[in-house]
């Protein structure tokens, strides 16, 4: 087995079987090695310096750097430069809250409230929660923070009839999961989750503070209690460059 086919990175290191590699990709591979040498938080050399280092045009360097920014390996700071990004945060696909998931990684969770209101259920919300159109739901929308950095946007719908005091007892700066289980006595029996990639709407991109062209991870979840009745529908949008999901099988 030759070195280029050794297991340890992307399959065959991303090299096509015909062996011809786009120039920008060769630069990208070289940048990944450089990122490993520089370490988290280090500034990347300028496009001119990288062009000289890899003997390519600045446009080629820019394409390679742009891909690494989209993948979360590099981060651009307006008016400052490009820096080596830290590792992605990992959110478990399990019945644990956003708060628990981050605290387990030594990261400080936080939230900024956008809206907390009663609405009439309609469309997919009504269908997922088995409500008649017009029945009331409590809607809570919050920007999700990790060590003060905006990383996502969460929109939660709960069956209002099951939680008549929720708006009175819930602190939007805290964990909704903790409020439901500890204050309102909810026992989660299960949930159905679906994850897909999307682009943020202009409103979502503004709230999260990200480029609308940046791929996002969208998580849909419907949760139910021991009686099998759904009570919660969650739509969570996360920055694909800062968050990854993980689950354990077995």
UniProtKB/TrEMBL annotation:
What does the record list as GO biological process? Answer: negative regulation of DNA-templated transcription
Task: Report which superkingdom the organism of origin falls in.
Answer: Bacteria
Q: Can you tell me where the transmembrane regions are?
A: none
Arranged from A to Z, the UniProt key words for this protein are:
DNA-binding, Transcription, Transcription regulation
Q: Please provide, alphabetically and separated by semicolons, the GO molecular function terms listed in this UniProt record.
A: DNA binding; DNA-binding transcription factor activity
Residues covered by the HTH gntR-type domain? 19-87
Q: Supply the SMART domains for this chain.
A: HTH_GNTR, UTRA
Q: Which Gene3D superfamilies match?
A: Chorismate lyase-like, Winged helix-like DNA-binding domain superfamily/Winged helix DNA-binding domain
Q: Name one Pfam family in it.
A: UTRA
Tagged with keyword Transcription: yes
Query: Which PANTHER family has this protein been placed in?
Result: MANNOSYL-D-GLYCERATE TRANSPORT/METABOLISM SYSTEM REPRESSOR MNGR-RELATED, MANNOSYL-D-GLYCERATE TRANSPORT_METABOLISM SYSTEM REPRESSOR MNGR-RELATED
The name on file for this protein is: GntR family transcriptional regulator
């Amino acid at each position: 087995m030759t070195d280029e086919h050794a297991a340890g990175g992307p399959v065959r290191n991303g090299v096509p079987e015909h062996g011809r590699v786009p120039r920008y990709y060769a630069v990208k591979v070289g940048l990944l090695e450089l990122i490993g040498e520089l370490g988290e938080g280090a500034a990347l050399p300028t496009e001119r310096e990288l062009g000289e280092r890899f003997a390519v045009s600045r446009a080629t360097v820019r394409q390679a750097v742009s891909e690494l920014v989209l993948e979360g390996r590099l981060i651009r700071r307006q008016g400052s430069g490009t820096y080596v990004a830290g590792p992605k945060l990992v959110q478990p696909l399990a019945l644990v809250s956003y708060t628990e998931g981050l605290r387990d990684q030594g990261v400080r969770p936080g939230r900024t409230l956008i809206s907390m209101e009663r609405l009439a259920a309609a469309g997919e919300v009504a269908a997922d929660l088995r409500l008649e159109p017009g029945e009331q739901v409590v809607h809570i929308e919050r920007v999700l923070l990790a060590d003060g950095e905006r990383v996502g946007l969460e929109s939660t719908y709960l069956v209002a009839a099951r939680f008549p005091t929720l708006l009175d007892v819930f602190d939007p700066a805290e964990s909704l999961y903790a409020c439901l289980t500890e204050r309102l006595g909810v026992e989660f029996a299960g949930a159905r989750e679906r994850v897909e990639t999307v682009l943020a709407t202009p409103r979502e991109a503004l709230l999260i503070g990200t480029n609308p062209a940046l791929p996002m991870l969208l998580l849909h979840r419907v949760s139910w209690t021991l009686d099998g009745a759904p009570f919660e529908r969650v739509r969570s949008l996360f920055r694909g460059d800062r968050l990854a999901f993980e689950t354990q099988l077995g």
